[in-house]
TrEMBL record:
One of its GO terms (cellular component) is nucleus. It holds the Pfam family Ham1p_like. It comes from Syncephalis pseudoplumigaleata. This is Inosine triphosphate pyrophosphatase. GO terms for molecular function: dITP diphosphatase activity; ITP diphosphatase activity; metal ion binding; nucleotide binding; XTP diphosphatase activity. CDD domains: HAM1. Binds 1 divalent metal cation per subunit; can use either Mg(2+) or Mn(2+). One of its GO terms (biological process) is deoxyribonucleoside triphosphate catabolic process.
């Protein structure tokens, strides 16, 4: 039997190629990730319930086990906003606009919050895995390849996510921390789950 047949396979519903690359890198050799691009509605509410509902809809559409992921960028001065709405804030305001939102505040601290959800199939209860990374919002530095990476400087580093090597980001990121929890969960589950 080849090694790949010994790997657990999970279907990840996403249309975001950067997320997919990071997830594949983090789970390399542990979980084989199959990507399915289905456009799922983005709901409003608290991050946990958004991820849960997104996962329920994904399991319904795929008609089988799935994982999904939702990422928030939360400004402490704004009590956690834009949070789950960061995608639209980023699209409309860009990196400069996001910095300007904090112009009236001394507190530039923020955190990235990543929630993975796993659902075994239609009408099953999703399980959530969270990861957080604290940092602060800075004027953009580094290549603009992935979302708000150029304006997020994680605590303890003087490089933004965009400036650092991907391996460094994967060591500390919100996404990697959530994936560590997900890997721990699956390590304790039989292969058919
Ligand atoms: O690790 C990251 N670094 C920088 N930007 C990110 C990261 N993860 C997600 N984003 C961006 O944050 C926003 C919120 O992500 P969401 O999870 O709703 O994205 P998706 O719909 O593109 O999958 C999107 O604009 C996405 O590109
Ligand atoms: Mg979202």
């Amino acid at each position: 039997m080849s090694t790949t047949q010994l790997l657990r396979t999970l279907t990840f519903v996403t249309g975001n190629k950067n997320k997919l690359a990071e997830v594949r890198a983090s789970l390399d050799g542990v979980i084989d990730v199959i990507a399915v691009d289905i456009d799922l509605p983005e709901l409003q509410g608290e991050p946990g319930s958004i991820a849960e509902e997104k996962c329920r809809m994904a399991a319904q559409q795929v008609n089988g086990p799935v994982i999904i992921e939702d990422t928030c960028l939360c400004f402490n001065a704004l009590d956690g906003l834009p949070g789950p709405y960061i995608k639209w804030f980023l699209k409309k305001l860009g990196h400069d606009g996001l910095n300007r939102m904090l112009a009236g505040f001394e507190d530039k601290s923020a955190y990235a919050l990543c929630t993975f959800a796993y659902c075994r199939g239609p009408n099953e209860q999703p399980i959530l895995f969270e990861g957080r990374c604290p940092g602060r919002i800075v004027p953009a530095r580094g290549p603009p390849n992935f979302g708000w990476d150029p304006i997020f400087e994680p605590t303890g580093y003087n490089e933004t996510f965009a400036e650092m090597a991907l391996a460094t980001k994967l060591d500390i990121s919100h996404r990697s921390r959530a994936l560590t929890a997900l890997k721990q969960y699956f390590a304790g589950q039989p292969m058919d789950h």
